[in-house]
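Friendly challenge for the regulars: who can give me the structure tokens for this chain first? No prize, just bragging rights.
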Amino acid sequence: MRILFTLLITFTLTTFSLAQEYDTFISGDFSAFLRGEDDTDSKNSFFQFRPGIGKQLNPSWAVGATLNLTHSQTVFDGISTQVGSRRFQWGFGVWARRSLNPDNQFVVFLEPTVFFGSSRLSNLQSNGDWEADENAQTQAGVGSSLGLFYHVSPRFRLLTRLGGLSVERFFENGPINASTSLNLNFGIRSVSFGAEYLW
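First reply, four minutes later:
Bragging rights claimed.
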């Protein structure tokens, strides 16, 4: 994990130093939802915020780095008590964005990403208190998302990400308890909205 983090930082700093003559931009996008299901008496909430910084290499390519902060919670109303879980996750990723039609005002893009992060789970106890799980889960992976942005002005654009494909490796209590998952992320949690400002 330490080697992966070092490679991510080195890649980001090298890319930014080689592209000083082009526009730098700051970005931020979020997704959130709150949903209740009557048939299971459950309430689900999800919030994600991703601030970042990027560099426009040319009209077709941009690179950047993003911080990912996620909070999710599920609570079930039982006959006599509530049960539930709550997860907080943070992560860091670097990405390269390929704009498929850069000359248009509406631009479709693909965004391959390398990322890592950590999450911690809390469980709702019978007395109503949340108790944190002592074991944090670490993850690393690669993925690619599909998105669209709209040029409001030469310096400001709105964007949305629609989901994508990712392969993740999860570690709990070291590499012995590791698992891998392949995720096709197209759904309400994978849609995010944001903006970018170039200077």
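The chain is about 10% helix and 70% strand. Residues 2-17 form the longest helix (16 residues). Your move, everyone else.
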